[in-house]
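Encode chain A's predicted structure.
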Amino acid sequence: DAGVHSKAWYAATCDRKMAEDALYRSNKDGSFLIRKSSGQDSRQPYTLVVFYNRRVYNIPIRFIQSTRQYALGREKCGEERFDSVAEIVENHQHTSLVLIDSQNNTKDSTKLKHVVRVS
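Encoded structure for chain A:
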């Protein structure tokens, strides 16, 4: 269990468009929520959706079968791994999360500050 179901930031029934719309409405840097990933792939069960600098970032949350842990984004050397999705959120409420914009090849960073609820 990823530890998501009782959390305020978990939008269980929310798709990508609903998540992005909710974050654009919030219009606050560091607004975020976690939704189920569109693909329903067991190796990438969730997506962290973050608003920063008038943009919405969809960051995949991977499940690493061998260690039964979670990590953000594409696999990389020395990546941070967490025992639950809740630990990822708690960590990035204190530590900046790097946001990579692959279209414009830019990097930003923000902390997870404002929980967005999807109505």
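The CA atoms of residues 69 and 83 lie 5 Å apart.
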